[in-house]
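Q: Hi! First time doing this. I have a protein sequence and I read that you can turn it into a structure. Is that right? Here it is:
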Amino acid sequence: MRLKIILLLTLFSTSLFAQRKPIPNLPEVSPEKVGFNRDSINALDDLIDNFEQRDYRSLIVIKDSKLALEYYYNSFWRNHIHDIRSAGKSITALLLGVAIQEGYIKDLNQDVYSFFPKDKYPSINEDYKKVKLIHLLNMVSGLDADSDNYDTPGNAGHWMAKDEWVNYLLSIPLAREPGGKWIYADINAVLIGAIIEEESGMSLKDFAKEKVFAPLDIKEFYWYTNASNQTGGAGNLYISALDFAKLGYLVSNKGKWGKKQLVDSNYINRLINENSVAIGDYNPLADGYGMLWYKSKRTFGTKEVEYLWASGNGGNHLVIVPEKNIVIVITSGAYGNWFPHKRAYLILGKVIQAIEKND
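A: Yes, that's right. Below is the predicted 3D structure, encoded as structure tokens:
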């Protein structure tokens, strides 16, 4: 359907293509120029075009600091913003590195309690003196919260609809010692966002807009922020596929956009390399987890690669392959299903295998 859509857009809205302005610091090239086999790319395009499900939206590939692929499907286009769901957690982690670069936060070993004054947050639990930033980032906080268990007081179902949720979150006690068991819980990413908000004096949404989105020329986005100006750092971010890819490139490029260092480079190195196997078998496509990013090592054809990736419900993935200087974005709207994640893994493998042997 991709080629048909492009043809129709050309016939009925030729001005749309005139809007494809050059992207600063991200030049566009043909796939062959950066080492992809054209026949393999065409075959992948045909494969996606013939998916039975019509929820698939886009495939973006940046390689060697150049935009090599920008494909859209099923009536979606460059300016559409997508609900990337829990992949937003990984963006929140990236913003923590910006807060470090800006001098708001000094050390990932700082305890959570130290960021929230008792007189402002009287509900804060003493247990937070034991919970460090790195525990939140690695989903080993030990807090009584589990995204898959509504009976835990920290489950998002108990607080997400509140007009003010930070005071409630800070009352959540420990269920176990921090640093041990890995449990997927939205509270970890939201607390990271709340710390950035407390230290910067602005919502996470506005912090992202000023410190990252504006420099990257990201203009169209939506990030749910409650009545108390607290942003949902665990997800709730709507962004275009291309802008999603820009954020991945910021990680791949060690925090630099053009000549400006937006994210602390040491933090980026840790984000890429932090890898805890405490995740166990929670996600069969992941080998580890660290800094609110999944980590994997897989063989596709004859190519073995290590990569990190952000994952959101519906099949929304941002994949970074540092050793091959590749960023891949896959978006789809199959929310509430497992198949789009397996499909994204299939597409990832096809992209990796499309790289010529001399890469």
